[in-house]
Specification:
Length: 306
């Protein structure tokens, strides 16, 4: 079968909107400088709204998107969800929300109940921290192994909530334990497990960890956030990662995410989408449709295309 570039509608499973000049984003303040995997991030300390996003998409048809929490002031997690819900009402984007919830806090039960009451909330995210380098794995554990955090995680199922997990690949054995211990909760791995280093040894370690995670049927993966500082976003540089995720999880558990505007530090949205479509071109049309739209619609229970 000849390769065919996907030209259908796209559901972006991972993007952000923000207005740091009027909303509480500590890391986006003009003076803020946090360790950031793409280096200097001053260029994204600006308003980014649905009109900007649609303009950035250019010729690509964005049918729906999933708003992912933006490290808004942790004292006001409900405020961010109200803000994102308001954007959806005014602009038609996003179509679903991944809300902020700190699972090990004393107020976790109340926050989860309040977040779940918003019609667009489908999932929550709480980055579990832990070892920052592969060689540190095993010396310490992430919050995925903390009893209080797990008690918060256990509450997701009663609200029908999924969990968005952002952690590097060397912590994925803990994610396997979590997925097996809570088989009724869907876990969505962000940014393909963060395979930042692309040398053969690092990629081999990443692939082995992802293969173990793929054995958990309640786990899906967002192929997003693949930019590399100082390097162009190309099908050649990112193709091995994208193809490995689809091979391991299948298109029915893999989905495209732009991570915009964060990944605008590395590439334009047409460069990322065009590159992803070129990588996926050898796949059968049904698998391309799943990767670019269908899987995200199903996993995040998005409204059918109108």
């Amino acid at each position: 079968m000849a390769s065919r570039i996907y030209d259908g509608p796209v559901v972006d499973a991972h993007q952000h909107f923000w207005e740091p000049d009027r909303n509480p984003h500590p890391w986006l303040r003009p003076e803020a400088r946090i360790p950031f995997r793409y280096g200097n991030y001053d260029a994204i300390k600006r308003r980014y709204l649905p009109d900007d996003y649609r303009r950035d998409a250019g010729p690509h048809r964005i049918a729906a998107s999933v708003y992912v929490e933006t490290e808004w002031d942790p004292a006001d997690p409900i405020g961010e969800t109200a803000y994102a819900s308001g954007l959806a009402a005014r602009h038609g984007l996003p179509g679903a929300i991944v809300a902020q919830a700190w699972l090990d806090r004393a107020d976790a039960a109340d926050v989860l109940a309040r977040q779940a009451a918003f019609p667009l909330v489908r999932s929550v995210r709480h980055k579990p921290g832990g070892p920052a380098r592969p060689e540190e794995a095993g010396r310490s554990r992430t919050l995925m192994s903390d009893p209080a955090w797990r008690a918060g995680f256990a509450r997701l199922a009663r609200h029908g909530l999924r969990f968005d997990l952002q952690t590097p690949w060397w912590n994925l054995d803990e994610a396997v334990e979590l997925a097996r211990d809570f088989p009724g909760t869907t876990i969505i791995l962000n940014h393909a497990g963060l395979p930042a280093a692309r040398d053969p040894a690092s990629l081999a370690g990443w692939r082995a960890a992802m293969a173990r995670l793929a054995g958990c049927p309640n786990v899906a993966v967002k192929v997003s956030g693949l930019g590399q500082p100082g390097q162009a976003w190309t099908p050649e540089s990112n193709g091995p990662v994208v193809r490995a995720v689809i091979e391991l999880f299948g298109a029915e558990r893999a989905m495209f995410g732009s991570n915009f505007p964060v990944d605008s530090l590395c590439a334009t949205l047409p460069e990322i989408l065009g590159g992803m479509k070129a990588i996926a071109a050898p796949l059968p049309p049904a698998e391309q449709e799943a990767f670019f739209a269908g899987t995200a619609r199903r996993v995040y229970a998005l409204a059918p295309a109108g």
